[in-house]
Amino acid sequence: MNCVQKIAVMRASGSENERDGVRYRSLLTANGMRETRNLISLSKTIVKPLALLALWLLIAPAGSVSAQSPTSNHYFEVPFQLIHNQIVLEVKIGGKGPFTMLLDTDTDPSAIDLITARDLELAMGSKAHSVSGGGTEANLTFLTRIPLVEIGSLSAKNIAAAAIDLKKLSARLGKPVHGVLGYSFLKDRIVQIDYPAGKLRFYDANPYPGIQNAPNMVNRIALGFRYDGDVIIDNVFINGRKMRATIDTGSSNTLCLTPEAIAILGLDEDVKNARVDTSVGYNGEYEERTGILKSVRIGRLSLESVQATFWLPGTGHDQKRFQVNIGNDFLKDFVVTFDFPGKLVILETP
C-alpha cells in the first residue's frame, strides 16, 4: 500500500537561508511535502490504533483545570475535511479562491504550489534550493511570501513560504493541493484540532488555563514541547525506551520510527521480517516496512501492540531531530490543542 509523506524542505544554504528573521529549514513536514515526513505522509490503510490496543490511563486527581467557555476566551472555528488522514482546508489567497491547503505543524515555513505561486504572480527568490526527504529524485524550491491568506474570518498577512511542485502530493491526495500552512502561519497562534467533529478552532488564549501546573487527567494529557524545526516532545517511550518524538499533523500515519530509533530499540530483525510497503515522498517513491511495537507510552497514555511504520536507511529519514513521528492516524480520536506561544500541546478525548 502506498503512503505519501512530507517534504522535508531542505535547510537552505547561503544568504537566503535566513531572511527577515525567518529560518527556512524543514519545509513540509510530511515527506511528500515535507519529507521529514512532515509535509504529507499519506498513509496506507493503518488500523485505528486505539481499536487494537489495550488503553489504560493512570488516574490522577482532576485538579482545577477546565476548558474556558467561549464567553471568557474568544475563538472562532472553521470546518475541515480529513482526507487520507490529511487536514484539508479551503482558503482564499490574495482575495482569490477557494484554494485547498493542508495544515502541518511540522512544516517550516509554509508552502505554496509552484504553479499556483506563478498564477498568483508571487515574487519568488531567484535562487533555487534543493529539498531533502523521502525518495530518490530531486526537486527544487524557491523562497517567497504569501501576501494574504483568509480562513473564514481569520486573515494572515505576509506568510513566509517555499514555492514547490506539489503535483505528486495532489495526485496521492486525489485533489489539487495548492499549499500547506506550516510553522510560519502557526507560530504565534493557539490552534485546536477537533478531529472527531472536523473543526479547527483559533483561540485568543489557551482554553485550559493553568493546565501546565495541574496533574494530567483521565481524559486529558498536557505535554510541553520545544520547537526545533519540528514540534518535539521528550516524554515518549517506545518498548520501554525513552525517545524524542514529533507531533506531526502533516503525517497520515500512526507512528513512524527513524533508522536511529530502529537501531536503538534493536528492531533490525523485526524490520527485515515486516511487511513491505512503499511511500511517495517529495523526492519520489521509496520502500518502507510496517510492523507492530510492543508498547507506546505518551505521558500517562499507554498502549500495547501498536502498528508502526519503519523508515529504512537511505530513504531520506536518516538525519532527523526526532526518533518517532506521531501522525494523524494516531491523533484522529483526540481533540488536540497546540499552544505555540506557550509551547504546550494538549490531547483530550471528547
Largest sheet: 6 strands, mixed, barrel
Q: Give the fraction of residues assigned to helices.
A: 10-25%
**Number of folding domains?**
2
The fourth-level CATH homologous superfamily of the largest domain is Acid Proteases
The beta-strand count equals 26
Structural class: mainly beta
Rg value: 19 Å
CATH architecture of the largest domain: Beta Barrel
Number of helices: 7
CATH topology of the largest domain: Cathepsin D, subunit A, domain 1
Mean pLDDT: 81
Low-pLDDT segments, ≥5 res = 1-66
Structural notes for this entry:
The chain is mainly beta and 350 residues long. The chain has two domains: 2-37 and 77-189, Cathepsin D, subunit A, domain 1, CATH 2.40.70.10; 49-63 and 204-348, Cathepsin D, subunit A, domain 1. The protein contains seven helices and 26 strands. It has helices at residues 49-52, 114-119, 167-173, 183-186, 259-265, 268-272, 328-331; strands at residues 2-4, 18-19, 22-23, 56-57, 75-79, 81-83, 86-93, 96-103, 110-113, 129-130, 140-151, 154-164, 179-181, 190-194, 199-203, 220-224, 226-227, 231-238, 241-247, 255-257, 275-281, 284-298, 301-311, 324-326, 335-339, 344-348. The strands form four sheets. The chain has a six-stranded mixed barrel. A six-stranded antiparallel beta sheet has the order 5-15-14-25-26-16, with no helix packed on it. Strand 2 and strand 3 (22-23) form a beta hairpin. It is globular, with a radius of gyration of 19 Å.
